[in-house]
Amino acid sequence: MEVTLVMSMEESVKLTRRLTRQLTRKVQELWEDVSSLPLPEEEKLNSCFEKIPVALFPPSIHGQVIEVCSETSIADTVQVLAQNKILSVPVRDVTAPDNASWIDKYLGIVEFAAIAFWVLHQSELTSLKTMPGDAGTGEGIGGMVGTLEAETQGASVLGVADSLVGTVSTGFQVPAAACPALSGSDAVSTRDGDFFEALTSSDHYANTKVKDITGSFRWAPFLPVQKSDNLLTLLLLLSRYRIKSLPVVESGEGTINNFITQSAVVHILSQCSGLPWFECLGNKSLLDLGLPKMKPEQVVKVDEGQPVLEAFQLMRIKGVGGVPVVAKGGNYLIGNVSARDVQYLLTAPENYRNYRSIRVKDFLEATRKYLATKDSSSPLLHSVITCKCTEAVRDVIAKLDGHKIHRIYVVDDDGNLKGVVTLRDLISQFVMEPSEYFGEFFAGWLPAYSPRGWTRPQL
To answer: Terminal CA-to-CA distance of the chain, rounded, Å?
Structure first.
């Protein structure tokens, strides 16, 4: 594990604030030159952002960019993410030579979402290996694997079981009490607290490296921008494409100079309230800008009575970073579960050991009790953050930045869920992608974002 800070937190915060003021003033100066032109606001802003190099974007408040090496365990990676209150971290390949360029030095970016999905995988494997047999034959998955083992001339039971779910193997074993005799999605998602204590105390958890999950789970690509690139490129990548963070590099060098996230961009926007270039859109309501994009019935949500692992399953299936929690049998919003919340199941599993099955409501209650003594600033400690569709964009941005959250739920006057607005939704309002801006660069591998959802560019 490697975490190095080159300046104190106080010095870093002061530097970030000073550079933020410089950046916002620069945009304002450029805006004054184009504000009277007969063009859409987004096009005027495009011309401003296009003239500002990425090098002017303020650095992270952590000082030097936080990294983990490819040999770092998942357990230690969770600690790095949790302690620094970040969602993702670049992974450096320890086998790369010291003089390697960034393209050879970094494997990718590991996110909390990848770790959450790895935990789901462990649950799926456990269910597979403990699946009850047919009532008539008494043969379960153990019997089936035994037959397959004989037919494959000694292939390991573990290997065959893993092949049935189509991913990497595991040596993790859990107590029978933590694995109820269920089948289907219930077998995967219904887990008591013993499951997480057994997982986090296992050699498998301690020894699995981040390099071992590359390519098998939701692994963010290492797609950097250079300091000489412009701010328009940066904003388009973070708003129009399925990218949440961008490393900043220098051509030919092997180090990351900055690590820019969607949250960092929204923080900059929150500091621009009152500036004419920002207010051209900031004083409009969500409704004026067509937000939220989804209809209420399209929003992916979970019932408070569902197992918490089902919430993570939904995130994996739908490709989202969090889901709203509604009251049983209705649409009244009571909470939120995000991919980063998996950290509490892994760093403090003892808080959940008394639950026969960890339902979403149980998870939220137990986690809030834990955080009350550990982290008073956590969004989970407070009531779910909401807004109305009539609220101004500037106010919604202020809420997102102030509470350090990545989505905000839109509710009606009765507190019923009406939609969700993400960081990406808001950033995308301030830029528009010129025709053929990226050419064929993303064709075929990176889905683009449109008002109708994610679409894959045609080759």
So the answer is: 40
Under 8 Å CB-to-CB from 455, ≥6 apart: which residues? Answer: 447, 448, 449
The residues near 276 (Cβ < 8 Å, ≥ 6 apart) are: 28, 31, 32, 35
Q: 């969602």: which residue's tokens?
A: 87
Which residues does 59 contact at the CB level (< 8 Å), separation at least 6?
12, 15, 16, 19, 258
Q: What is the pLDDT along the chain (459 residues), one digit of tens a residue?
A: 444 445 677 787 888 899 999 999 999 999 999 999 999 999 999 999 999 999 999 998 777 899 999 999 999 999 999 999 999 999 999 999 989 988 889 998 999 999 999 998 888 887 666 555 544 344 443 333 333 333 333 333 333 333 333 333 344 554 444 444 444 445 455 566 788 999 999 999 999 999 988 766 666 778 899 999 999 999 999 998 889 999 999 877 888 999 999 999 999 999 999 999 999 999 999 999 999 999 999 999 999 999 999 999 999 999 899 999 999 989 999 999 999 999 999 999 999 988 878 999 999 999 999 999 888 778 777 789 999 999 999 999 999 999 999 999 999 999 999 999 999 999 999 999 999 898 866 654 454 444 333 333 332
3-state DSSP call for residue 302? strand
- Nearest-5° angle of CA 97, CA 102, CA 103? 95
Q: Within 10 Å of residue 386's Cβ, how many Cβ atoms? A: 18
Contact call for residues 291 and 397 (beta carbons, < 8 A): no
Residue pair 27/277 in contact by the 8 Å Cβ criterion: yes
Helices H, strands E: what count in the chain?
18, 14
Distances (CA, A) of 9 to 1, 5, 64, 245, 258: 20, 9, 11, 21, 16
Output phi, psi for 161, to 5 deg.
Answer: -60, -40
Q: Which two tokens stand for residue 346?
A: 């892994």
Name the E strands within 4-142. 68-69, 88-92, 106-111
Q: Do residues 370 and 351 touch, judged by C-beta distance below 8 A?
A: yes
Tell me the residue ranges of DSSP E strands in 267-319. 302-303
- What is the CB neighbour count within 10 angstroms for residue 352? 23
How far apart are the C-alpha atoms of 444 and 30, rounded to whole Å? Answer: 36
Structure tokens at 403: 């509470």
Pure H helices in 283-411: 308-318, 342-347, 360-374, 393-403
Q: How many residues does the chain have?
A: 459
Are the C-beta atoms of 300 and 323 separated by less than 8 Å? yes
Question: Position of tokens 């969770």?
Answer: 78
Could you give the residue ranges of the DSSP H alpha helices within 191-261? 193-200, 203-207, 231-240
